[in-house]
Amino acid sequence: MKRLLVPVIVACLVAAVPAPASRELGKQSAPFYNVDTEKQVEGTIRELLFEPRYQDKAPFLILVIEEKKTGEVYRAEISPAWFFDYDLHKGESVRVVGSTYAKDDSQYLIARRLQCGGETFFLRDSRGFPSWRGGQMKRMGRHRGRGM
After folding, report:
1. Rg of the chain (C-alpha set)
2. Is residue 147 in a domain?
């Protein structure tokens, strides 16, 4: 009887301890870059914003873009503010290639490539990994994001 009781008690104790994943269900994680949802959006900058995207990290540059063809509005997540060193202006024409997702009745675009003012900025590689990997200190002295 004792040999049967010990495994039952252990099983009950294990079941009573919440799993780490169940604690995380209430938290929303930031969307990841998905190459399968890539889209090119060409339009005009309606607004420039700096918003927190990740806890305890630098704010992100967000461009609110109105697409030329459809008039649809996208919130394009460009990069951390410290990474992007080009002056953008409201009303400027841009072309953005990125991964799309929808949230709260809004369309979002995680930018991989941004073209504006005759320049091309490569913000992520072809698989969607950010060009700012390694943080701000690793980027000091390098050409940040600009293409050929």
Report:
1. 22
2. no
